[in-house]
Amino acid sequence: MSGPPRGLDVVAFAAIGLSAVLTIMIGLLGPSAMVPGLPGPSWQPPYSLEARPDGHLVIAMAAVAIVLGGLGLAAALRARWGPDPRWLLAAGCVVAALLAFLPPSGSADHLNYAAYGRLVTLGQNPYAVTPAELPGDPVTGAVEEWAGVTSVYGPVATAVHALASLVGGDSVRLTVFAMAAFNAAAFAGTALLLHRFTRGDAGLQRRAALLWTVNPLMIYHLAAGMHVDTLAVACMVAALMARGAGSGLLLGVGIGVKLNAGLVALGPAWELRRSPGRLAVVAGTATATVLVLYGVAGPHVLDQVGAASKKVSLGTPWQLVKIGLQTVFGPGAYATWIQLGSLLLLAVLAWLMLRAAPRDSAPAVAAVLVAAWLFAAPYALPWYDGLAFALLAMASWPALEGFMVARVTILSLGYLPAREALRPADLLWLKTVVRERVVPWSLLALTIALLWWAARAGAHARRRSASAAPRP
User: Fold this and answer.
1) In degrees, to the nearest 5, what angle opens at C-alpha 351 toward C-alphas 455 and 266?
2) pTM for the predicted model, two decimal places
3) Most-buried pick from 143, 259, 260, 314 (CB within 10 A)?
């Protein structure tokens, strides 16, 4: 990007900034339909203005933040001008640090994390014991709709939550703040790693900052929402920058945060396919790390993962397939049919996009596989997309970036708010109309468009390679 700023360029970056400001304001407002007051002394972080605004206002602010963020990001990625990437890096890190001192917004997952960490410090196994089994505890008793569910998160995530619980003790507020500090460090650490990875090219550094550091949708979901996915992303980006056993160790730790992050490991595996010795070191170290981590966690560590793999979230196109199967064949979850269909779609998407990929580096291959999984998965939430954005920041693939921006924007609007119990009664249509109908059909259209684009781009790339090949 070069040249003087155009009006549209300035508007795009202004929209990104305004989206981030709105996200901060949601946290500052404090207890609301999305961010209720956290139990504990008010002198403990996270802090808020305790304004108690109407839930409609907060949801409207979040919707505007998402729309502005998506449109601004899409336009900024195409801009010929942009701020110095060092300023973007600094701005994103400051915003992430500030949000760590404010109540999380967008979902109630942080209360689940606090409860699972609390169970560990109380000598209980969060993979076998639910928060509902300790209802009188001030921390486990704060869990909302997932109180009767054991942990689905990896042992590394649980260890971080347990450490936060040791810091917070009986206080939900202090436990959440400790987790938010870890989350902010992971978010900023990923930003610094991506800045270093793209060093030597200001344009690539700026693009990496847009895709992660100042990405308003990632700020909304991962910095403000404080989801555990941030830790997995940090580990995987570091793994792709490391070499040898260090890379394998980091891959294993990332899988120890969330099992599905293991798709990233196929990137280094592909890149090292012609170096069996180096591949054996990375794969062996990663495998050993995963076996140790999950082995220490005990036999129940994968119980909830197995159950979750059969679920279909309301915002994915597979919900439409599920309804269609139920209409034709009668009641039933049809989990096996849907799982097989999603695996087939994943394979087709991955094959088509790999043919179209501008390069076959580890980040590019990993980005393709993660993006294919996100589009094909029966169960997906908007904050899952953070891994794809971080990988695309390393791979530099503008066309696929556009599809990901559209996807996370649409899915984000479907989860306003993700906190079911706190939605105003007259906004039920956000679930029954937007989440269950508009979003699945929109993502279905986007998936078809991705298939069509990948097929055409792959065929074009093959013809170009054939024409460039030396003739006998």
Assistant:
1) 145
2) 0.95
3) 143
